[in-house]
């Protein structure tokens, strides 16, 4: 499972964002740490509550508590304001975890007919889509909700003194 990471960052820019429901997905986010090093995340998921509190403010140093969904993809769990108060909402994260279960079922079940349809057009090579779709389905049904469960997040935040 992904460990909760605490990092002080400054958001410099991002390419675009998607979503207005439970969360926002920012793509190609360029960040800077206090030492001045620049690094990128391919995808950054920000829950709606944290977005409204200013977790993704530009050119303002913020301390993020986040978990990695993949190598270059993160979800922000909490952030520390300039006054030192840590803002988080476990109910928003629970709703996001539930939506990933639905997404995983769609990926898993949809990969079988999609693989068969593509296989007929590509003389069997499309069958390679099925294992990838089932792997993504497994990941979204079991791994991500387990990573975002209330007990796991409470224990991780308690480990950081929140």
Walk me through this protein's architecture:
By secondary structure, the chain is an alpha+beta fold. The chain folds into 2 domains: 5-89, Nucleic acid-binding proteins (OB fold (Dihydrolipoamide Acetyltransferase, E2P), Beta Barrel), CATH 2.40.50.140; 91-151. It is 41% helix and 33% strand. The chain is built from 4 helices and 7 strands, in the order ββββαβββααα. It has helices at residues 48-53, 90-121, 129-147, 150-159, and strands at residues 5-13, 16-18, 23-32, 38-47, 61-70, 73-80, 86-88. It has a 5-stranded mixed barrel. The longest helix is centred in the middle third of the chain and has 32 residues, at 90-121. It is elongated.
| CATH fold-level name of the largest domain | OB fold (Dihydrolipoamide Acetyltransferase, E2P)
Strand order of the largest sheet: 1-3-4-6-5
Number of domains: 2
* Assembly classification: single chain
**Mean pLDDT metric:** 90
* CATH structural class of the largest domain: Mainly Beta
The fourth-level CATH homologous superfamily of the largest domain is: Nucleic acid-binding proteins
Terminal CA distance reads: 20 Å
- Helical/strand content category: alpha+beta
């Amino acid at each position: 499972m992904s460990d909760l990471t605490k990092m002080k960052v400054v958001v410099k820019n991002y390419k675009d964002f998607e979503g207005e429901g439970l969360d926002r997905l920012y793509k190609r986010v360029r960040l800077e740490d206090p030492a001045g090093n620049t690094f990128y995340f391919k995808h950054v998921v920000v829950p709606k509550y944290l977005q409204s509190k200013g977790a993704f403010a530009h050119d303002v140093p913020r301390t993020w508590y986040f978990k990695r969904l993949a190598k270059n993809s993160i979800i922000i769990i909490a952030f520390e304001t300039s006054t030192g108060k840590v803002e988080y909402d476990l109910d928003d994260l629970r709703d996001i975890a539930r939506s990933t279960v639905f997404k995983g079922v769609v990926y898993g079940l949809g990969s079988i007919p999609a693989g068969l349809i593509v296989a007929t057009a590509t003389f069997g090579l499309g069958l390679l889509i099925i294992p990838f779709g089932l792997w993504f389905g497994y990941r979204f049904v079991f791994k991500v909700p387990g990573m975002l469960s209330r007990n796991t997040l409470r224990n991780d935040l308690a480990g950081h003194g929140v």
